[in-house]
C-alpha cells in the first residue's frame, strides 16, 4: 500500500520524505491556506521534496469551464502533479475531459460506492474515500472503502482507492485489511505508525543490557 502524507507544510513533507517510505502528498485548499504561502510555490516545493511522488493539488472553482482552466494551469506546473477534483457533476465531467488529455486526477470528497463508481468510470487515477468524517456521524467509513475496492477489482477499473480522512493508526490497519491502494494521513498520524509500547520496552532492555556489559561497536 502506498503511503501519502496529507499536508501543506513543506517541513512535514521533508521530514516524512527523509524516512524513505513516502509515495506522495495530498493537499487541499484548507491545508494550503494553513501553510501561509503561495499555492504554486508550495506545490512545487512539495514536488521537489518528493521526487517521483504523486502530488495532489486541488481546483477551487465549481463550474466546469473555470475548473478546466484551473486544472490545465495546475497540471502544467510539474509532471508529478495530480489534479484533485471534488465529486460534483462538473467535477466528474472535468475528470473525463482530463483523462482524455492524459492528465491524472484525484477525485475527492467521495463517501459512497455509488460516487466512487462515477469517478472510476470517468477515468479517475485516484478515488479518495473519506473515512473519519463518516465515522464522526456514527457510521462505518471503512465499509465504503471496502465496497469501492471490491467494485474496482470486480470491473477492472484502473483507478486506485485512496483512504482519506485518516484519524488514527487503526484506520491504516483497516485500509490494509480491505485492500486499499493508498492511505493518506496527517504527519502526526504517520509518526504514530512507528509507535508501540513493546518496541519501546524492548529497545530499552537491549540498550540497558548492552551498556551494562560495557560493549562497543568497532
How would you describe this protein?
It is a single chain. This protein has helices spanning 10-18, 29-35, 39-49, 64-76, 89-100, 113-122, 132-135, 141-155, 169-177, 187-192, 197-212, and strands at 2-6, 24-26, 54-58, 81-86, 105-110, 126-130, 160-164, 182-185. 51% of the residues lie in helices and 18% in strands. It has 218 residues and is α/β, with parallel strands linked by helices. An eight-stranded parallel β-barrel has the order 1-2-3-4-5-6-7-8, surrounded by six helices. It has eleven helices and eight strands. The two termini are 38 Å apart. It has one domain (2-212): Alpha-Beta Barrel (TIM Barrel), CATH 3.20.20.70. The mean pLDDT is 96. The protein is globular and about 70 Å long. The longest helix is centred in the last third of the chain and has 16 residues, at 197-212. Helix 1 packs parallel to helix 3, helix 4 (64-76) packs across helix 5 and helix 6 (113-122) runs parallel beside helix 8 (141-155).
Give the topology, please.
Layout (H helix, E strand, L loop, with lengths): L1 E5 L3 H9 L5 E3 L2 H7 L3 H11 L4 E5 L5 H13 L4 E6 L2 H12 L4 E6 L2 H10 L3 E5 L1 H4 L5 H15 L4 E5 L4 H9 L4 E4 L1 H6 L4 H16 L6
Parallel strand pairs: 1-2, 1-8, 2-3, 3-4, 4-5, 5-6, 6-7, 7-8
Amino acid at each position: 500500500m502506498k503511503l501519502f502524507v496529507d499536508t501543506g507544510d513543506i517541513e512535514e513533507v521533508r521530514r516524512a520524505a527523509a524516512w524513505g517510505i513516502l509515495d506522495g502528498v495530498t493537499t487541499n485548499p484548507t491545508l494550503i491556506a494553513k501553510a501561509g504561502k503561495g499555492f504554486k510555490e508550495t506545490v512545487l516545493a512539495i514536488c521537489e521534496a518528493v521526487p517521483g511522488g504523486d502530488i495532489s493539488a486541488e481546483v477551487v472553482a465549481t463550474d466546469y469551464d473555470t475548473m478546466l482552466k484551473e486544472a490545465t494551469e495546475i497540471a502544467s506546473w510539474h509532471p508529478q502533479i495530480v489534479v484533485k477534483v471534488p465529486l460534483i457533476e462538473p467535477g466528474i465531467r472535468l475528470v473525463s475531459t482530463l483523462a482524455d488529455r492524459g492528465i491524472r486526477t484525484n477525485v475527492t470528497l467521495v463517501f459512497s460506492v455509488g460516487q466512487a463508481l462515477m469517478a472510476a468510470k470517468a477515468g479517475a487515477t485516484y478515488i479518495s474515500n473519506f473515512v473519519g468524517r463518516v465515522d464522526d456521524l456514527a457510521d462505518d467509513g471503512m465499509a465504503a472503502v471496502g465496497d469501492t475496492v471490491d467494485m474496482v477489482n470486480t470491473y477492472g477499473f484502473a483507478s486506485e482507492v485512496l483512504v482519506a480522512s485518516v484519524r488514527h493508526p487503526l484506520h491504516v490497519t483497516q485500509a490494509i485489511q480491505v485492500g486499499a491502494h493508498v492511505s493518506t494521513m496527517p504527519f502526526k498520524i504517520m509518526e504514530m505508525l512507528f509507535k508501540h509500547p513493546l518496541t519501546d520496552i524492548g529497545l530499552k532492555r537491549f540498550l540497558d543490557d548492552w551498556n551494562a556489559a560495557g560493549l562497543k561497536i568497532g
